[in-house]
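Record copied across here:
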Amino acid sequence: MLKGSAWMTAGSIFSRILGAVYIIPWMAWMGSSYPAANALYAKGYNIYSLFIIISTAGIPGAISKQISHYNALDEYSTGNKLFKQGLKIMIFMGLLFGALMYFGSSFMAAIFADGDPRSIPVIQSLAIAVLIIPILSILRGYMQGYSDMAPSAISQFVEQIARVIYMLLATYLIMKVQGGNYISAVVQSTFAAFIGAVVAIAILLLAFAKKLPKLRALSRNGKAPEKLNKNFTKEIFEQAIPFIILGSGITLFNLFDQSTFNQIMRMFVKATNAQLDNYYSLFGFQANKLIMIIVSLATAMSATAIPILSGLFSKGVKKDIEDQISNTLELFFFIMIPAALGMYAVSQPLWTTFYRYDQLGIWMLQFSSIISILMGMFTVLSTVLQALYCNRLAIQYFIVGLIVKVAVQVPMIGFFHEFGPLVATSIGMGVTCFLMMRKLHKLYPFDPNRISRRISGIIVFSLVMFIAIFFINSVAFKFIGNSDRIVSVVILVIEALVGSAIYGYLVLKTKLADKILGSRVERIRRLVKIK
């Protein structure tokens, strides 16, 4: 669990860092055309994201789960047949939705981009990536089914490197060397998604070729499948649908805010459309973009937990499932609580670095940082329930939470105004997480006392870290001022190092890290000379 989560977390975090850093030179080379170029890029990518969700259809997660299930039963050949059928489906989905996106680009520009003709070539360039992204996704799902997270993480990171190199090189040549227009530069920047996907597939195929002799041996020596007439297509989609619904959970909460915020706010405050759009942007886009970096930590752990728990469920070892649930929850809190409180503590330099100083935005980020714990918990718990074949229950609990969110949205906005949607989200997510946790404990009575003792230690150490960073903030910004972006970057780096050092020292000194991460932590303790 720890090894897999480390690989997936590293791949996710490094990819997100690259995805943020490329903006600096890209923006400089676009010059005065940057606002228009950025808007055009965003329009195309929002449509692309929608098509990726539809075309992959939750199948990679389903493949990972079912491959692990058959492997646990020693039916490796059945798992391979399932994968081959899934690969055929993914090739078909890529061709279908890539073609729809390419040939329907004018229609999509009219519907999703306010009829902007400049977005048509951008959409078409992204359609080419949609052709092969489903294949990339299922290859990752297959590897994860064997609990081999390294190829997925490495391919994710290399994909981002290839994408960023191509888009920056193309943008520089078009804008600076040839003196071209920004539309051509944006088209090449979005086409970079295809370049990245090709490189990632190549990495996965190399890993697959390296693993092939072992896979053939497992298939040859495993059990012959009892049912040769299985409907693999039906099985794949039965497992994929819950992944689609629950994987879109946070997005559905956000879409409800996007659809209702302005209308409900007008019931309680007098504000122009521009003011309301600004309020929504602060929490719905800007703060959300930052907290999703730490929510991705939970997503990485979820990807690791699926094959482990699915395999244990197939073997029917209840005690091992209980232990694994405890391990998953402890690892989640061990990483998520300090990450959330840390983001809360550094919110001022972090916000100023990305968006320039805005006190309301900083408050939004602080509140959102706390809510990110519930979002991450929802991601982990829903995945655990799916891995244990409690798909319907997981969906039911999510729907209950969404209904609660809808029900309390108006009164929460009435009481808290622009903070209302965040309060409503925390209530809805809280209800869902409570129901999921209660059901998990009922089905697999893991030790809540052990978990609560360790969480208490995590919270105390995280608060010590939080207070130290808060003190640095108070001193630094009192003498330096709020708005300097370069100074904010320096303070942010210092606070991140200090906070990590404090939390790391405390969990190593008290040996809390050993209890959660295992005995190998002793090596780290010796390395940093902590007794």
